[in-house]
Amino acid sequence: MKRLPLLTLMIAILIMLLAVACRPATPPTAEPTATPTPSGPRELVVMTHDSFEVSEEVMRQFEEANHAKVTVLKSGDTGSALNKAILSKDAPLADVFYGVDNTFLTRALNADIFEPYTSPLLDRIPDTFKMDPQNRALPVDYGDVCLNYDKAYFKEHHLAVPQSLEDLTKPEYKGLLVVENPATSSPGLAFMLATVGHFGPDKFLDYWKALKENDVLVVDDWNTAYFTHFSGSAGKGAYPLVVSYGTSPAAEVYFASSPIEEPPTAAITADDTCFRQIEFVGILKGTKNRDLAEKFVDFMLDLNFQQDIPLQMWMFPVRPDASLPDVFVKFAKMAEKPAFVSPDDINAHREEWINAWTEVMLR
Q1: Which domain holds residue 220?
Q2: Both 104 and 136 in a single domain?
């Protein structure tokens, strides 16, 4: 057998080694990819006043539609809640603020806590409710702060129901009226503003001096005024006139322990005796959930939420196409001509007027 020369053999071995080295490597067996775990719902925090309410079903519809969890941060009355939002604006405590009204609106706008947002549902809302051209605060609901009276008392005493603010200073109404302190109560502030709007900023204190001489009772909050001192609700108080809301008689029927056909109370809605409150919602600057916050604003302006407002917060929805419950249609009242003070004037003089009122009434 003929042997291959040594050089030829070495070349053959080298070729074989190169062929092996250049052959593609077998890829390693890939481990199965784990199925990603679905993330939980996004949290949206809504800061608001203590009177905010929404039915569970309506809120659940928003949460399910947007894979979200809404946390409601109740923060006191309107003024207290707004203070917290302003003080925390560099590190906001919430994504959305609801409940600032026209008595505090300019303060909120001047503090620059809201981001503009033009909701596509704004065109469903009458222009009369829109108070910010930049759409930083969008109107949601409204209602009138009015005098309420105990119908039985006036009937039994053959006493005419007062039809003007001036009437309340007459001798026949001495010691019959309970009001709330404007420094501590939203309806108290609204009623004080009604007197400013009717008498003017230079003369409204003279009116309050006359009320004081006629033995008006001043208390800190609406609950104390309405449920402790007013005679028309539970019948326990001694005062048949109280500062409350145009919707309060409807609430009397709705919450009656036994069904009643008529409320025991009624609202006085004569010209210049009421003050109209409009409540707004805005997206807080610094939110990390801007898209979800926009959806929540749209949700508040949509019909489901708007039609939920009357029996939850006892205010009127701003959308005229929202249907009202029967108890509202029959017994909730609105003034044709409420007293008016512009938001700019309120912002410029609110503390001045409150302090002057306090000097007259409480010192």
Answers
A1: 143-275+336-361
A2: yes
